[in-house]
Structures are given as structure tokens and as C-alpha cells.
Amino acid sequence: MKFPYGLADFQALIRDGYVYVDRTAYIRTMEEMGRFQLLVRPRRFGKSLWLQTLAAWYDLRTAERHDQLFGHLEAGKSGPDSAHRYFVLIWNFSKIPTPASGLVKTVEEVGARLESYLNSTLEVFHIHYEEHLPAAFELGEHPIENLNRLLALLQRTPYRLCLLIDEYDNFANEIMMTDEGGYRRLVSADGPFKHVMKWVKAATEGEGLERLFITGVTPVALNDLTSGLNIVENVSQARELNGLCGFSEEELEGLLVGLARAQRERGEIPPPGDETLEMMRTWYNGYRFAPTADDKVYNPTLVLYFLKHLQREGRYPPQMLDKNLAADEAKLRFLADGTASGELLAETLQSGLPIEIDYVEDGFHFADFATHGRQKRASLASFLYYFGMLTIEGATPWRTLRLAPPNLVVQRLYVEEMLSWILTEETGHPDLSTPARQLMRDGEIEPLLLLVEDKLLPRFSARDRRWMNELAVKTAFLTLLFQDVNYRLFSEPVVRFPSPDEEGDEPGAPRHGFADLVLLLRPDARTTGLFDLLLEFKYLKPEILGENAGRLALLSRTELAPASRPLGPRSPRLPSRRGATTAGSKNVLAPCCACARGRWSPSGSSAWSRAK
User: Fold this and answer.
1) For residue 485, what pLDDT band results from cuts at 50, 70 and 90?
2) Where are the chain's structural domains?
3) Counting runs of H as helices and runs of E as strands, what totals does the chain give?
4) In degrees rounded to 5, what are phi and psi of residue 495?
5) Which of 199, 354, 439, 472 suits a disulfide with 404, CB 3.0-4.6 Å?
6) Which helix (H) or strand (E) holds 29?
7) Residues 6+ apart with CB under 8 A from 560
8) In the 8-state DSSP scheme, what is residue 101?
9) Of the candidates 193, 197, 189, 143, which has an alpha carbon nearest to the alpha carbon of residue 173?
């Protein structure tokens, strides 16, 4: 099996025998939806491959290879009759350099590079279609004039133009993240970006541009162009297209079966199929792009990264996050710079609960989430949705949407950014890993408590600590303990306990509950001797302890220890020195940790039970 990791060339993929999960039936689906479309999906989600599939289908030059390319696929058997009826012009705006690349210094230079790039695509177009053009095509200096001459030339042929724009917002997003003023100039009325998009709009009005398909990550840049290109339909949340980019679980199962068969034929012993599927489901599944869709899809880049490693090494990848996706941390950092957006990220991490909004916005603008002090919660959540940091978890009975992180890979990005945010003013490089390893390896929580109290809690302002609860402290522990090499981390999972007839169980005790944090070893880490971990965080009010709030605020951790005592048959016990710490003037924090080796196992998608 040849897995096409990083390959977006449809023709090469088919010609060279790579694994291909047929998506060509969507050609008819999209044609029935209209001629001018925008599809946005997170980075590395298969958009470019789909655009190249459309190019191969519509291009008049591929007519002689139709059977080779499409004969065995759904579109070749029962597809629409639109195949090979167009000149195809492709623009890939990820090729436009920004100041971050070091190749240009100003937004004005970016505009000049955009114009130069458009002229280069027209030059390539002329080379590709020279034998199909009725006359020579002379290129001038200005791309808009050249495009107009091209349309006039195409009017003299029986074919029309299909324009495919890949990553339309790539350079715009990079500028947006680093230079707010530069971004506003880029999309302004007299900017080259808007001039190009206005030409595209005019070309669809009987001038010969008959099909237009645009991919990107968000609709923000297109919205900020205002009337620049307002004839495009955003089909990104269409139910029919939910599975266009990404793998379904059924498709993934088929790939795993094929890989296991190939491994056995080579004399290798593949990991258990159910175990592998559960591993990938936990780390990679969870994307739902249409509010009314039933199924979720897997990120295709992450799936192919995992499968290639499993095929080559015979084991799971140690790092579940593909480094090529880590660039999304820049988007999180951009959002975390604002108070409202930082709070939204913290809320997502702390509570483990979905964020509720009326709907995912597709008409919002840069100012809706970038103007500090006036950031709209729905716009912030929508921005995170488009970048793949949140996905549609479902709907409430009152028909609002619930957005949540799609999987553990995304949660890891959140965790790393939150830790960076917490330690922004920390000088030097504190050792964050050794205390966590001591808990995981030895069950010793004291070093981790000291680290949290000495390095993390002081980062909260006095006002923050006054209102801090166990969720805020849980974030500190979560950021320090998230380690994907050995663990799967779950926030607020349902935990089921032994049945009443099992040894040591109290009569009438509850059978299930929610744990604050659970760290379960990966299937391939069961032989490491590390602990599975369950952590609970509770704040004990002064009145429960029989103490004065003002006095508690002055006590050290050592002085707090004598307050530890049982308060009744089922009352919380304040731990000894290793488990007690002050947390503002009102409460005392009592973290509890249960450690077990080989005693916690998955039971269902969100429930965890203890096995004897």
C-alpha cells in the first residue's frame, strides 16, 4: 500500500497507484449546488487534492486520459457530462510571500508579488493551451488587462473558463496575524487583492468565466473585501459536503484492514485492529462541519501520518501530533493575545464542556474578533471552528450549537499555548517535566504541587486568585501533565466504579461520577510501569474547616497541615502538607490523586471503568 501523505496531485496519485478513497461522486453534488463556490476547511484537510481533482475533471486537455483517470471511479461511471469542457486556470495564493517569509518587507510589496504571480500563471496557461487558442496571447505588464485579453480570446473558442483558486486567504491570514494595519490596507478598496477579486466577479457576468471554485481556511478575508467578490456561495456547512474532505470511520477501518493484511503477508504481526482504531478515534476523530450532519470525520493528514509510521515501523508513532500541523499554534497565540479570546481558550480547557453559540458565523469580519474590548464570543468561537480548533459537537434542545475541541491532538495544542500564556513573564527555563514524571513513575505528587504553587499560581493576579476555583487550578495541572508519548488525557470523563458485590465497595455508594482529570496509558505504553492517574480538585471553604478566611490567607502550607482532620463519615479530609495549598483569601485547595497500574481501562467512548 502506498499512502499519499502530503500528495495533492490527483493525476499523479492515480497514475502511480497510491491509495485513493473515491470522492468523485461529489462532483455531481457540487454542480447541483451552483457554479461559484467557496469551501473552507482547516489546514491540511485535503482541500488542494479536491481542487486538483476538479481540475483533472474539467480540463479539456485530459479528455484522452479520461478512462485512465476516472474510468474506475464513481464520476467516470455515472458522473455529470461536464468533463473536459473547460480551459482551467489555477491560482494558488499560498505562493504569495509575506513579510514573515523575509522575501518582502511591506504589504505593498505583497501586492506587487501578487500581480507578478498572476502574470506567471497566465504565461503557463498560454503554454498549456497554445494549440487550443485561436491566436497568440501577448502578456502586458498589468494582470487585470492581461486577464481581460484572455477572456476576449476564449470567446472565440467553443470552451469557457474554469477558475480554481487554492488557499485564497493564505497570505491574507499571515498578514492578519502580525500586522493589523497592513491587513486592512491589503483588503482596502484600492488594494490589488480587491482589484483581482472584483475582476473575478465581473468575469462571471457573461464574460466567459463559467465555473469558480475557491478554497481557504476562513471566510473572513472574503467578507472583508465587501463587494469585491459577493457572488460566491459558501458551501462549507452544507450537509451534503460534510464528508468531502476527511475520512469516515468506515473508510478508516478499510484502510487498517488492508494495512494489516499487507503486514501479515510480509511476516509481521500488526497491532490489534480494535486497539488501533480506538487509538486513532481518540486522537484524530471528531470533526463535524455541517450542523445537521450525523457523522464525524478524521483529519486525513493525521491519519496518513499515523498509517505511514505504522507501516514503516510496525508500531504507533510516539508523537501523535504531526509537526506539519503544529503551525496552527500561531493562530491560537494570535487569539490568546486578547482578553476575551484568552478567556474562551481557558474556559474550553478548564471545564471540558462545549461552548454554546447560536450558529457558526460565515459573514463575520476581522474587527469582530480582533478589536480588543469589543470581541464577540460567537465570532471568536467561529474563528476557532474554521481553523479546526473547535468543531460542532451537536445541538441543544433549544437548537443552539455546541462547539468543542475535536480530539486530543487539538487539546494538546490548547495545552501548549495555555502553558506558554501562563509562563509569559517567567525568566529562565523552569524544569516542568521532572515533577510530572515523578508523579507518573513513582506516584509522588509533592514535587508537582510545589511547582504549581511556586511557578504557576503566582502568575494569576490578586484579582484572578480571589475568584479562582478548582477549574483554574485544574488548568495548571493539565498543562503540566499532558504528555502524548505515553498518555491519553481526559477532562471531566464519566467514571464507573465496581458493582456492589465487588470487594471493598460501600453499600449505597454511587456507581458513576465525573473525574476532573484522568490520564490513561496508551495501549503501547502499558509495559512502561507508569501509573494511570485520576485527579480531583476541591476547594474547602473556611466555614467547613472552622477557620477564619483572613487567618487562612496568612498561613503557609506547613501551617495549614494541622487543619487536616475528618469532618464526618463522608466529609472531605484536608490532606497533609503534600496536598494543601492556599488559593486566595477565601478557600484552601485540596488536590487528590489516585494512582493505579493496569487497573483502568476504556469502556465506551466517554466512560471509564475500573477492572479487577
Assistant:
1) confident
2) 10-241, 249-318, 325-404, 439-610
3) 26, 17
4) -120, 125
5) 354
6) helix 26-33
7) 552, 574, 577, 580, 581, 582, 588
8) G
9) 193
Question: Per-residue pLDDT for 376 more than 70?
Answer: yes
- Position 571 pLDDT exceeds 50: no
Residue 11 predicted with pLDDT over 90: yes
| 347's grid cell | 474556559
As a whole number, mean pLDDT of residues 334-342 equals 61
**Nearest to residue 460, comparing CAs of 550, 340, 452?**
452
Ordered strands of the 401-404 beta sheet? 355-357, 401-404, 391-395
List the grid coordinates of 97. 510571500
**What's the confidence (pLDDT) of residue 603?**
42
Task: Check if the beta carbon of residue 482 is closer than 8 Å to that of residue 522.
Answer: no
Residue 246 CB: number of other CB atoms within 10 A?
27
What is the spatial distance between Cα 144 and Cα 150, in angstroms, rounded to a whole number? 10
* Residue of 149, 117, 116, 145 whose CA lies nearest to 133: 149
Reply yes or no on whether the pLDDT at 231 is more than 50: yes
Grid cell digits, residue 60: 479539456
Q: Between vectors from CA 472 to CA 470 and to CA 477, what angle results, nearest 5°? A: 85
How far is CA 425 from each of CA 240, 341, 459, rounded to the nearest angstrom? 48, 19, 8
Q: For 10-241, give the CATH class.
A: alpha beta
E strands along 27-157, which residues? 36-40, 86-92
Distance of alpha carbon 500 from alpha carbon 23, whole angstroms: 51
Class of residue 285 by CB neighbours under 10 A (exposed 0-12, middle 13-18, buried 19+): buried
The secondary structure element, H or E, covering residue 533 is strand 532-540
Query: In sequence order, what DSSP letters do the residues of 427-447 get, joined into one string?
Result: -S----HHHHHHHHHH---HH
Parallel/antiparallel/unpaired status of strands 233-234 and 36-40? parallel
Q: What does the alpha-carbon distance between residue 207 and residue 231 come to, in Å, rounded to a whole number? A: 15
Output the pLDDT for position 31: 95
Average confidence score pLDDT of the chain: 82
Rg (CA), the chain: 28
Q: What is the pTM of this model?
A: 0.86
